[in-house]
Design goal:
mainly alpha
Length: 172
């Protein structure tokens, strides 16, 4: 049986950007999580450690804000990281209500391995794309985010809607 060639679309589809981005995110996330699992680290643990590699000594609330999860969820991950010997929590001497989180030597040692997981996942995702393709891809996605965040910000200012999350830096 002969297959009929697919019709060439007259223009871009009206819907589908969100589905396509979600599918790409899912595939990327699965690959990255699998690579992290080889080192016995979850994605949640990775993003907490990453914030401490960027700025050691943050308090728990600030880490939670930067990783964009609830304080309760973040506290659970921080407790696990502490039990595993990657971090230590210390009372802030200037504000006894705050606990600051510091990397322990084990948390510093694993940085190179885990960041390589992120880099290798990015290399896999970019296979077959030129440098120029990758730059265009980032630009297009940044524009989509800006379009939607500006709408969310306008809705928030007018009293309705929620704020949108920001884009993570390239590399993850």
């Amino acid at each position: 049986m002969t297959r009929k060639p697919a019709a060439v679309p007259a223009g871009p589809p009206d819907i589908g950007i969100g589905k396509l981005l979600r599918r790409a995110h899912g595939a990327f996330s699965r690959e990255f999580r699998n690579r992290l699992a080889e080192h016995g680290v979850t994605f949640g643990e990775f993003i907490h450690l990453e914030k401490l590699w960027e700025e050691d000594g943050l308090n728990q609330t600030e880490i939670s804000r930067r990783v964009e999860i609830t304080t309760a969820s973040s506290t659970q991950i921080i407790e696990t990281l502490e039990q595993r010997g990657f971090i230590v929590r210390k009372r802030n001497p200037d504000d006894r209500r705050n606990l600051n989180v510091f990397l322990r030597p084990a948390g510093r040692r694993i940085e190179v391995e885990l960041l390589e997981c992120a880099r290798s996942t990015n290399r896999a995702a970019r296979a077959g794309l030129s440098g120029a393709d990758t730059i265009v891809l980032f630009d297009l996605i940044e524009r989509i985010i800006a379009n939607l965040e500006s709408r969310a910000d306008a809705a928030k200012k007018s009293g309705g809607g929620r704020s949108a999350r920001g884009l993570r830096k390239p590399g993850r």
